Sequence to fold (1244 residues):
Amino acid sequence: MAFKFTQGQSQAIHESGHDILVSASAGSGKTRVLVERVVDKIKHGIDVDRLLILTFTEAAAKEMKERIQKALREACNQTEDEHQKGFLINQLVKLNTADISTIDAFCLKFIQNYYYKASLDPSFRLLTDQTEKRLLREDVLNDLLEKLYGQDDADFIELAENFSNDRSDDGLTELIMRVFDFANVNPDPESWIKSLPQTYQIGTKDFTESAFFKENLLPMLVEKLRMLAINMEKARVTMQEQDESFFAKQIALFEDEGNRYENYAKMLEDGADYATLQKTFAEMSYARFPSTKRTDDSLLTETKANVKLIRDEAKKIFTEKIVPEYFAVSSTDLEQALKQAYRLVKKLSEVVLKFAAAYQTEKRSRRVLEFSDLEHYTLSILQKNDDIRQDLEERYAEIMVDEYQDTNQLQETILTTIARKSPGNMFMVGDVKQSIYGFRLADPGLFLEKYRRYANDDSDGQRIILAENFRSVKNVASITNLIFSQIMSREVGEMDYDDNAQLVYGSSDYPEKQPTAEILLYFDKRNETAEKTTGKMRWDMTSENHESMDADFTIESAAQGQMLATAEKIKQLVDSGFEIYDRKQKKMRKISYGDIAVLSGTHGNHLILSEEFKRLGIPYKVQKSENYFQTTELRIMLALLNVIDNPRQDIPLVAVLRSPIVGLNENELALLRINDRSGDYYQALLKFYEESPGQNQELHDKVKKFMEMLERFRTLARQNELSTLIWKIYDETHFLEYVSGMPGGSQRAANLHALYERAAAYEKTSFKGLFQFIRFINKMQDQNEDLASALNEASDDVVSVMTIHGSKGLEFPVVFLVDATKRFNTDSLKGKYLLNEKDGVSITCLNRKTRVETVTPMQSYAKEKAARKLCAEQMRLLYVALTRAEQKLFIVAGYKDEDDALSKWKRAKKSEELLLSADVRENAVCFMDWIGAALYRERNFCKRFDCADDVRPCHYLDKFSAEYEFEKISFDELSKNADNQPLDLKKWLKDQAKEELDADDADFINKVLTYRYEHEGLVKTAAYQSVSEIKSAFADPDEKVMSKLDPSENEEEKANRFVSKMELPKFMVHEEKISGAAIGSAVHLVMEKLDLTKKPSESSVKEEISKLVEDGILNEEVAKRIRISDICRFFETDLGKTILEKHEFVKREVPFSLLIPANEIFVGLSESDPVLVHGIIDGYVDDGKKVILFDYKTDHATEENVSEVKKRYAGQIELYSMALKSILNKPVDEKYLYLTQLGKAVDL
Fold:
């Protein structure tokens, strides 16, 4: 059955002839639409290699190719037109080289073709490792700063003082890096950097006459003041309509203050100078809010409270924001601050340009390029070579861009450079509500500008909206619409969440009865403000399989409770058999762990959540863990690497000495320190090592072993690659084996393997050596980056734990949004500078004499703008989180108690419109501030929350019909559940006995419990055996059917595998002795190597042994134990003489493999499945007349026990005989054992 497209989807597939922007809401099938559009273009005769299709990730590009390939194959199979079929087959071939990739991959391919146009070395390497890039940048910048400090440049010193502290100039370094990054997303970074000081260039004019004031501050301040005036007027009208006499004093007050706000706005518009504005605004005074007579009318009381709130808010905005941020300093001080800011920013731009040039030179010398370089070189080549640009313009019939909301200005310029102009041929798909990559400098403004422009009929492009959501049940769409229609607008959120933006339920798959959304509220009265507490989690002392934490590990108690509540809810859902609808099977089924995703704003909660999941036995996978470097085994290894690099580091050195690698205890560490208290710890260790041990022989042995090992490792570090050093550490210390035996050993071992692999990858970068690697790892930790510790692929039936950013593009039947009360990260607003790709840099100026900082109006404006931008991005992040859910949504939050939650949500009462008041939306500090306020005005809120009904519902919300419920969980309840109560077995058995089973169930259970695998014997049988392991199974050669071993005779045998006793590892053996087996192997080796063309003498045998020792084949100590006379005596026997006589027919040390039915070897097996037997025949003679098999034995033998020795080896010789018969296709005529100690050959 063909998929039925909606009208919007059909439009997006077939429309052409101009630029098209498709605004595709979450779950609207945009990828399907893109694929169909590509196939439609191909069907209309456009080759696939004439389409440029750009995706946001490589994974998306791969998926796109696969989908197009599948669609083309289907179209090929369906058409009966041979010409069309041939064309489609040709497109399938071209698809492999078609331009379907990320924009970076497209630029890379372009540069590889035209590198000579930019004078690039064609053998360049991409600088993909973020840490390597960071280190390279720092090296270049440190060299530059060192030069600048040495030049005694007053402006530079002032710049450094302004952004550094008394400890380091990290602030200046960070500023230069950030400016450089912001510049790089511009098409012309150099011009952008040079333009930075212009904002502060006021000249002799008044500040209010500057371009910055007129273009930015003036409209914003006028809008703010007018809004205050409008709010005051609305409140006045409300009071007048309700009871003019009751509110007479308030009405007069509101009229007066409203007029003053309006007059201030007019003063600004009329061009009043800064000094006048500052003086006038400072004189603004506020009378006390008038009292009213007592009344029992609740409506009047509520109105009084509401209008007072409006007035207080207006007063707060004027006195705490407008005046102190824009008119706090005198005109003289402002003039001085702006001049200083101009000097600082001018010098900053000069330094950044010098850094950019030096960094580019360094990259060229190392033949490396960043992704941004690819884009800049691509643009440069296109702009300077009209023929290349025209070629691309003509080649691409259409340029398709997926996730268009995440592009930046540079990428946009590249695309518009190669796109056709009139008519346009760009097809852009995205959803600005899902633009959550501001930290990567994506610019959603590009999408928004086209979104608004293309809405007009007379524009040069077309806007198509895909509003239908095919992913989620109706209730998820309703909850999302209910929340976002109240919080997102153009002013706060950067776009209006109007009818075009709202989700429309589009799926017809789901059953009529749909799950409700749940808000899990965790209440903990112990914590007034969800303060951070330090210490271990309470289950740390009882859990056997946990990662021990640092003493200073910090967790948020509110977050901890939420994680516990989340884990228990998940366990409850699965254990209770909660049902979800399976869209593939078209029926309801029980939920599994793989249906659930847990989303959080950051990685911070993942460790706590992991601990809870382990405790409750919930399988899970963390998409990207940031706890890798915190694991014990990694910290020990990194400490050891630090010590190898520089042993004079006390903390890493003591960590290694205390670790299992050395194994000193606290008393021994103290003894070492007491031995020498003057210097560092390594000096004390060295002194103890060099002194005589005295009474501390055991400790001295440990220290000696460590110091010798350390010296070997330090030598190795200087002479070999890093990966070789790390593997040598694993090998010599057996640390890898040690951690493998610990709880969670496979994960720990994988972590160590990941370190080795990272070291091997590091050696391929432009940095080398142990010191740089340690610096590299430290930098990764500083940047909150981590290594992925890889184990075998996890099962699909696991809970997915990830950040909201990581969940983009994914969908899950059940989604938990956890820690919805976690405060937004606003650190970026608190620094000494703010950056914007359009407005440049705004800074705070430090007075070097008074050490007082002056916040410039530019900084205040930029902060307000950045706060709104941050607010909009957090809204979009919440939108992404909610729209990942297909069927059931859980929102988990923590508060002190119910009143604490309601006090925050009640602010929603300030607005009677659909949109919540701007200040409620702007001042939200967490997701729950928006969610709670939005739900608070819903008609059934009080009933669902179970609180006093004092809410005036907003009738605009009735159309959304959202179903949700609250579940309140207290700390006390959670603590009871978290305690591990011992199982009452009698009670459990009694409870089980109450359950009655029908006959079918009982029969099924009985079959399951008594089931035995029909080939159980083979399960216990090794399919690979050596001759020495099973020789006793063939001990009697006279029997046609050979005797079999019964493993049940040996109580210790668990399966049909017969092995010799395992030896202890070398590191556990204290005294090495030469075994008889080693001597026997040496004799066999000598016998194999002897020259048989002449009779061996004692001197020739001795010479052969010396040669084997010299070549390193034979151990010298073992060689001394070989009895040369026993070897020589062999050639005195009849067998020995025959071998010398027929030396050309002799074969020695012949390996073989033989398949023997298992039931011929093992007792109790009916199966005849083959067992592979392997061994080595010492030698045989085949002169064509007869075959003689011989084998040497160095066992202790006397004349009295010859028959016993023969019996012992009869089975082995029989196996050799069977193998030789199989090899030569003829029987073995004679079989001999040569007993070296007796000097005689015995026949079998």
